[in-house]
Each structure stands twice: as C-alpha cells, then as structure tokens.
Design goal:
Alpha-Beta Plaits; two-stranded antiparallel sheet; 7 strands
C-alpha cells in the first residue's frame, strides 16, 4: 500500500530533473564556448610566437580538464561542484601567465566563475572566491612579468582587481534580492493555500489538489478516502466560552489530526468547525480506524478553560466515503462523506460512520466495531 509509487510526485521530480539537466547542458556548452574563444585569443595573441608551445600545452591540459568536467556533470548532473570554479580560476590564470600577464585580455573570463559563485552562494563565500581570484591573478601577472620580462602595469592590475570586487558585489546583491523576492513569493503562495489559524490546507488548495489525486487514483487503480469531521456542539462551545477558546479548540484539533495521519495524507480546514482529511492508498476499514483514533484523541484532551469553567470534554463526529468505490465522481464522494457525517450527528455524535453504514443505529455500529 505505502510502497506504491507516487506518480504525481514522480512527475514533478522528473520535471525538476529535466530542467536541472537542461541547465547543466547549457553550462557545459558555455564552458566549451569560453574555452574556444580563449584558445582563439591565445593563438592570435602577440605572445604566441614566443610562448606558443607553452600556450598549446596549457590549452591541451585545459581541454582534457574540460572533458573531465563534462563527464562529471553529465553523470552527476544535479550538482555543479563549487570546487570546479576554483580550478577554473587556476586554469584561466595559467593561460594569463603564458599569454602576456597583465597585458592579456583573458582576465574577462574570471567574471564567469565569479558570477556563477555569486549567484549560488552567500556573500561570505563570494568574498572568499573573489579574494582567491585577485590573489592568483596578481601572482600570475607578477611572475609572468618576472619570467618573460613583461612590463608590469600595477595601476592597471589594481583597476582589474577592483572590477572583480565590484562584479562580485553586484552579482551577490542581485542574487540576494532575487532570493529575497523568491522567499516572499513562496511565503505568499503558502499563505494563499494555508488556513492561517490551524496551519492546515485551505478549501482553495484542496479544490486544486483533489484533481491531481483523482488522476493518481485513476492511473494506479488506487483509492481516495475522504474523512469529513465536525466538532460537536461547536457553536454552543463558542457562545459559552468565547471566540478565543473556540480558536484554541480548532488549533488543538488540527494538531491532533496532523499527529494521527501520514505525511502523504492531506488535512484540510474545510470551513468553520468542519475538517476534511484525504487519505489515499488505504482500505476504508483502516481509514475508519484513523478517523476513530483522531476522535478518541480529541475526547481524551479534556480542555482546561480556566478557574471559572474548569475542564471541558470536546468531541467530534466523522463521516467517510471512498473514491471510486462509492462513486467515480469525487464531488459526489465528498457529498457522501458529508451524508455519513450527518448520520453520525443524528445518532448521538462522537462516532465515525462510513457511507455504507448510513441507516444503522448507534448500537449496531458500536457492536460492529467491537467485533472488528
């Protein structure tokens, strides 16, 4: 039952994986384009006639390294390792070392790893990789000048270092604002589908989710149990003890529901004091036992209302119907669960009734439950 594959979640995972793989492929294509442009700049540069062999050797090593990175990313596509960016910086620095040091135009390729790291990491991490870039670029320019007798232009190098800092700062700030906006959007999305008082899903979210659940049940020949709960005598409770006590009771019941169900089940505040739990891949007898466990847990609470009122026992009634056993129309199944709930109220409340049990007396239901 629980081992049955979750088709909807699997579809989402495949979709996310597909987008992730597309991002990796785009990154790899970009890497090879950068390598191609770097090779062209190195081969056509003024230092190629004196350091051509060293430049070609370095390009060959980088080509092999790029091939290894490509194989790694294709096999482990979910994660683009941060350590690779540091190796990229070292590879660029080697080419700068052989192609003129401070006079090389290859410094522009530092902006790729800086921007990538700035987008994916926090400010502290971006500062680390920026300092690393500045240090290794300065070393490459300095030793290139010493080894090949180039003229080191310190003011130009300082300007480039400042550009690296500005680029890293700018991309980090942009990434921070984008992430902040994304968090706000996610928060608004959660609020839009969540009941503020209880933290359960709201009616709007349920109306959207039920379509996916029906598709899952149809595709995998599965079932959906609808458990409809109603707090007994809630209006009188609210009038007697106040709305604050009523809100406390609603919150308490929602917590009990969450504790008694699986993570894959969907609890909903359906309206007022009415709650709904959607349970799939479960026999209706077991689903009924879940409803009964929730009912008993609430009954045990004996809520404290202060010195004036002491403690109060609160109960709930529950009606259950199942898709597609009772109907192939999920709206009808919800109505059937509501009818079962209404029958539970009629026969004395604080009981769980399945749709098939409508018409049975309380004594018959209790006797049946005792036998099972």
């Amino acid at each position: 039952m629980d081992g049955k594959p979750d088709r909807i979640n699997t579809r989402k995972d495949l979709k996310g994986s597909r987008y992730g793989n597309q991002g990796i492929i785009i990154m790899l294509v970009y890497r090879w384009l950068v390598f191609l442009f770097t090779a062209v700049l190195c081969i056509t540069g003024s230092s190629f006639h004196t350091q051509g062999y060293s430049i070609l050797e370095t390009l060959a090593v980088i080509a092999v390294y790029n091939g290894a990175v490509t194989a790694y990313c294709l096999n482990n596509g979910k994660k683009y390792a941060g350590a690779l960016l540091y190796i990229d910086i070292i590879a660029i620095s080697l080419l700068i070392f052989f192609s003129g040091g401070i006079h090389s135009d290859l410094y522009i390729f530092y902006f790729l790893p800086l921007c990538l790291y700035g987008i994916r990491n926090d400010m502290q991490g971006t500062i680390r990789i920026t300092v690393f870039t500045i240090a290794i670029y300065t070393a490459a320019c300095f030793y290139s000048d010493k080894l090949f007798n180039y003229r080191l232009n310190w003011s130009r190098m300082i300007i480039y270092d400042i550009l690296f800092i500005l680029a890293a700062f700018g991309i980090s700030r942009l990434s921070f604002e984008v992430k902040k906006y994304d968090e706000l959007r996610k928060k608004e999305f959660r609020l839009a589908r969540t009941d503020k008082l209880t933290g359960l899903a709201n009616r709007h979210y349920f109306d959207q989710k039920i379509k996916e659940e029906v598709a899952y049940a149809d595709n995998w020949n599965s079932v959906i149990n609808i458990l409809m709960f109603d707090l007994d005598n809630f209006k009188g409770y609210n009038d007697s003890y106040g709305h604050a006590a009523g809100d406390k009771l609603l919150k308490l019941f929602s917590d009990i529901v969450k504790q008694c169900i699986r993570k894959s089940d969907i609890p909903v505040r359906y309206g007022g004091e009415e709650f709904l739990v959607m349970i799939r891949d479960m026999d209706i007898i077991i689903a009924k036992s879940v409803g009964d466990r929730i009912r008993k847990q609430l009954e045990k609470q004996c809520i404290r209302l202060g010195h004036k009122f002491g403690r109060q026992v609160v109960t709930a009634s529950c009606g259950i119907a199942q898709y597609p056993a009772h109907s192939r129309n999920i709206k009808c199944v919800i109505d059937m669960a509501d009818q079962a709930l209404y029958h539970a109220k009629e026969i004395g409340k604080n009981i769980v009734v399945c749709y098939d049990e409508i018409g049975m007396t309380r004594e018959e239901l209790e006797s049946k439950q005792a036998l099972s």
